[in-house]
Amino acid sequence: MDELTEDIHTFWNLAFEVVNLLEKRLFVFLAQHQLTPPQFFVLRTLIQHGGRCRIGQIAEEHHLTNATMTGLIKRMETSTPPLVQRVRSGSDGRSVDVHLTEHGAQRFAAVQATLMEQAGAVLRLLPAHERREAMDKIRFYLRLLSEQFPIENLTS
After folding, report:
1. Residue 59: helix, strand or coil by DSSP?
2. What is the pLDDT along the chain (156 residues), one digit of tens a residue?
3. C-alpha distances in angstroms, 19 versus 15, 37, 94, 99, 144?
4. Contact 84/99 with Cβ under 8 angstroms?
């Protein structure tokens, strides 16, 4: 095996190891806050859209059907206390907007604080210049990946 092929295998093994480790940790943190991964990602999407978003847009962003997303949103709406609220769109009676409740925002913030605390504990172990170098390399890789293999080309 040549050096580039070895590097490709090593890179993907490391990438999957990172994804697997982060996913396991995220699932533990979510369980501690009585959230499932899909619920967390819906809350995150709502935060990114200013606390409200059409149910169809959330479904599209998560590559789910409207029916699947509707079921998820209904469970989130009927949790105690509710994480979201469905509101019929004023401009289009056929559309339903999902609004983040105060409790949903607080639950998301609690998970995010836990994740940021752990990331901070790890990053504080590195000198500032090494942190910047690591972040620059990650940004560089993500930029190259996005430019060379845009998501829209992968799904068509």
Report:
1. helix
2. 899 999 999 999 999 999 999 899 899 989 999 999 999 999 999 999 999 999 999 999 999 999 999 999 999 999 999 999 999 877 777 778 999 999 999 999 999 999 999 999 999 999 999 999 999 999 999 999 899 988 776 655
3. 6, 14, 38, 30, 19
4. yes
